[in-house]
Design brief:
This protein is an alpha/beta fold. It binds a DNA duplex through α4, α5, α9 and α25.
Length: 642
DNA sequence: TCACTGTAATTTTTT
DNA sequence: ATTACAGTGA
């Protein structure tokens, strides 16, 4: 494709962004304005115009899905693979760098990734072994504290507690202890991937220089969602020569609660002098009325960069408003409206604020025998049986992974009870090392009763035997072997009937996944390790109960980035949406942005629903309509009934 | 090691 | 209402 063809499909502002001179470009891209198109065309333009080589390009996203989409669209435009171009998530890229430079990063070569669930378990164990008040220092709260500290780029030693601030002092003590555990057992959590990678580059000038030389053109998707450490990482990598091209929408920032900082948009304009802001305000998705409603709603937020989406499309149908009596009534209305809809079922989405709301809709759809798909729930690699097998594999390549050890030492039952493990924990506490090493010590020094010693010995042997056994097998046979040799299959068969089948199917699926991975990564030197990283970093698609053409149910957060002909925005009530815990600024503005995201998902028809009463926490509460409904001018809305 | 019981919490979740 | 979890007793 030559450059004129490339630019033909773009509107003026898009073309301006794509062909902008080589300074730092900030693209304010409204919902449905073609931001991915803009990003991919920019990259392809750089290549086609010989501005640079694909080797010098970095493209960063938040989700694996977006990264894959981006690469595939670039390859399509180029009509060949963009060799040497790095496209990935922040975490994926940080991880890649840490694998390359594990020595400089002070990591064991076999370091493994701790997903959120593993992290929580680790903290839970840590807390149980210490004396902190369980209320104030629940695993969840501690996890939050640690992760948000790391998101801010702060280690335990960087935070100073005021004299008399007992809470913070304790928190820091826990943070410290957690850091030690991670170091000792060779695991790295998600936030740590970013922080560690940042420090790696910051503290190794030759390395930094190398990557600054390499990644001269850095592209960032969903920039409004970057947190402090991601921003600092980008600045470091860009240095003085690198050129940033970032795409964002401040009105779609809905992850502040996870550390995202919209302020980074202003920050970047002060940190870099030669920036140019381009606005993409033409919307190619929704009708005029839907856009007008969205614009009116979001105008209630203060401190926006400000933009007005417009469309060439006709006004279309008014926004429909349904006032239900109960949540059952609401669901019934939605189901019947969908039944009457002539188009594809997959073009209908039911969006809600909280996952708990999905049940009513499921029941109503079921009653009308309509198939549906719920986004959410467990992902493939998060399932219990999968995580068990993976824990064995983790232990097999890294015996010091205490988390993996604890998870499976007595799964399936092999009479290694709490007492035995406590003995091991004591040794770790007094002598350091890992549980595995402690197990060795205990057996050598005969510190256990015969029965317990035999059980533990059998376990160690099992692991060693498996390690020898699978050493030279192809990946999928390794998985297969672990499945069989551990006795996990028999273990799961003891559960309820339907469970058994599902679990066994999933285990079979894991072997398949391993086989596919093998095919896909032919040149990978350590396939098993890469497979485990893949499992942690890309936990797989969220469970969908159907692939057919069916109604889509999801939370508003999950809907970001998607679009549908028909959108039902449900549960628009004070206390639910905006949520109880977010009724004052600045959280209220984030709720409003969430509502904006919901509205702008719709192409043709938008339904807003609220109920006069709702069953919550075992009570029936009466509800008032959400303020967000009132913030849309009545002229765009028409009340409907069945 | 299990089954029972009381208690508390119950927003969103890219990696 | 539902679930998750710690504590208790057999």
């Amino acid at each position: 494709m030559n450059s004129s063809n490339l630019l033909d499909t773009l509107n003026n502002p898009q073309r301006e962004a794509v062909t902008a001179p080589l300074e730092h470009i900030l693209v304010l891209a409204g919902a449905g304005s073609g931001k991915t198109r803009c990003l991919t065309h920019r990259i392809v333009w750089l290549l086609e115009m010989d501005k640079t080589h694909s080797y010098n390009i970095l493209a960063v996203t938040f989700t694996n899905k977006a990264a894959i989409e981006m690469r595939s669209r670039i390859d399509t435009l180029l009509q060949k693979p963009a060799k040497g171009l790095w496209a990935g998530t922040f975490h994926g890229i940080a991880h890649r760098l840490l694998r390359f430079h594990w020595q400089d990063a002070n990591l064991p070569q076999a370091f493994q990734i701790l997903d959120s669930d593993d992290q929580r378990r680790t903290l839970k164990r840590l807390l149980k072994a210490s004396r902190f008040d369980e209320k104030m220092f629940s695993p969840k709260k501690v996890q939050n504290f640690i992760n948000s500290s790391k998101d801010e780029g702060l280690r335990a030693k960087d935070i100073i507690a005021d004299e008399g601030d007992g809470w913070l002092t304790s928190m820091l003590e826990i943070y410290h202890a957690y850091e030690e555990i991670c170091l000792r057992t060779g695991v790295v959590d998600f936030a740590e991937l970013l922080l560690l990678c940042y420090e790696l580059l910051r503290d190794h000038p030759p390395l930094l220089e190398h990557y600054q030389q390499r990644f001269q053109y850095i592209h960032v998707d969903e920039f409004q969602d970057t947190n402090t450490i991601q921003y600092k990482w980008l600045c470091l990598l860009a240095g003085t020569q690198g050129k940033l091209f970032v795409v964002f929408d401040d009105d779609q920032s809905v992850y502040a609660w996870r550390g995202a900082r919209v302020e980074n948009i202003q920050q970047i304009q002060t940190d870099f002098s030669d920036t140019r802001l381009v606005r993409l305000e033409q919307n190619y998705r929704s009708t005029g009325t839907i856009l007008a409603a969205a614009n009116a709603l979001i105008a209630h937020n203060k401190g926006r960069l400000g933009k007005k989406l417009w469309t060439q499309d006709k006004a279309g149908a008014p926004v429909a408003l349904y006032s239900a009596y109960t949540e059952v009534d609401e669901a019934k209305f939605v189901a019947e409206k969908i039944q009457a809809w002539q188009g594809k079922r997959r073009e209908v989405a039911i969006l809600y604020r909280t996952t708990a709301q999905s049940r009513q809709f499921e029941e109503a759809l079921l009653q009308n025998s309509m198939s549906y798909r719920i986004y959410g729930g467990l992902r493939f690699y998060e399932r219990l049986e999968i995580k068990d097998i993976l824990a064995y594999l983790r232990l097999l390549i890294h015996r010091d992974n205490d988390g993996a050890f604890e998870r499976i030492v007595n799964t399936p039952r092999r009479n290694i009870g709490n007492k035995t493990i406590d003995t091991l924990r004591d040794i770790v506490r007094s002598q350091g090392g890992s549980l595995w090493q402690a197990a060795r010590t205990v057996l050598d020094e005969k510190q256990l009763k015969a029965r317990a010693a035999n059980s533990l010995m059998a376990f160690l042997r099992l692991i060693e035997q498996m390690a020898a056994q699978i050493k030279d097998l192809p990946l999928h046979e390794k998985v297969e072997q672990v499945k069989i040799a551990t006795g996990l299959i028999i273990h799961y068969q003891k559960e309820r009937k339907e469970e058994v089948e599902r679990r066994l199917e999933n285990l079979e699926e894991l072997v398949n996944a391993a086989r596919q991975f093998e095919q896909f990564k032919r040149d990978e030197p350590n396939l098993l390790m890469a497979f485990l990283d893949h499992a942690a970093l890309e936990a797989g698609e969220r469970q969908g109960n159907s692939n057919e053409d069916c109604v889509q149910l999801m939370t508003l957060h999950a809907a970001k980035g998607l679009e549908f002909d028909n959108v039902f925005l449900c549960g628009l009530e004070e206390g639910l949406f905006p949520h109880q815990n977010s009724l004052d600024e600045p959280q209220l503005e984030e709720e409003r942005r969430l509502c904006y995201v919901g509205i702008t998902r719709a192409r043709k028809h938008l339904y807003l629903c609220h109920s006069k009463s709702r069953y919550r926490y075992g009570r029936r509460d009466s509800c008032t309509p959400s303020r967000f409904i009132g913030e849309i001018p009545p002229k765009f809305i028409r009340a409907v009934r069945l």
